[in-house]
Amino acid sequence: MKTLEEIKSECASCQKCPLCESRTNSVFGVGVPNAEIMLIGEAPGENEDLTGVPFVGRAGKLLDKVLEEAGFSREKNIFIANMLKCRPPKNRDPLPSEVDLCVEYLKKQIEAINPKVIVLVGRISAMYFLGKDFKMTRQHGNAYYQEGRLWYPIFHPAAILRNMNQLPLMQEDIMKLRKMVDEIK
Ligand code: SF4
Fold first, then answer.
1. Mean pLDDT for back-to-back runs of 10 residues, the chain (185 residues)
2. Tens digits of residue pLDDT in 92-106
3. Ligand 1 centroid vs 2 CA: distance in angstroms?
């Protein structure tokens, strides 16, 4: 099994798909290397591409705030990453071919971190791991047991920013996550 540092270095020099041509930085992920909770979003945006850190724009700040309200943070107890390590142009949805090529890194990351709970942030990662019929409005905040761990979909913070009426739903889901994590300890 590869270490996180080894996988990170592979991502930094990866040229497997055309997204390598337009990236400033590959965005590997940050957090606690053996975290019990791993969050997986879709792909880096502009701020993430510029800094090499996931979820650092307005949406990322909102996510951090909601997580912190429930006692979660990148410094203390979670690891946060994306399915794609390089930014798709104009923040378009990832192409299936890009996901197929890049998700191998994510799978190695999951193996190295070995989290008990994987939080799927937004419909793209939820559909990939929970099936193409996944519907966020119906299924957010439900835990699914597969491959030896829990998979837990939540709204993407960028979607919440577009409709702040849904913020309480996200806050409730993260509070439920807190309870679930405390119960499985
Ligand atoms: S998106 Fe993934 S597969 Fe494509 S170049 Fe970046 S690291 Fe490689």
1. 95 97 97 97 96 96 98 97 96 93 97 98 96 97 96 98 97 97 87
2. 989 999 999 999 999
3. 18
CATH T-level fold of 4-184: Uracil-DNA Glycosylase, subunit E (3.40.470)
Nearest CA to ligand 1 atom 6: 86
Q: Would you say the CB of residue 81 lies under 6 angstroms from ligand 1?
A: no
Helices 96-113/4-12 angle, 10° precision: 160
CB 36, CB 181: distance < 8 Å: yes
Predicted structure pTM score: 0.97
Q: Decide the pairing of beta strands 30-31 and 78-82.
A: antiparallel
| Nearest residue to 73 (alpha-carbon basis) of 49, 48, 55 | 55
Calpha distance 156→26 (Å, rounded)? 21
Site to probe by mutation for ligand 1, drawn from 8, 15, 101, 104 as the one with most ligand atoms within 8 Å of Cβ, is 101
Give yes or no for a contact between 126 and 136, defined as CB atoms under 8 angstroms apart.
yes
Q: Whose CA is nearest to atom 4 of ligand 1?
A: 17
SS3 39: strand
The token pair that represents 114 in the structure block: 């070995």
Q: What residue ranges do the domains of the chain occupy?
A: 4-184
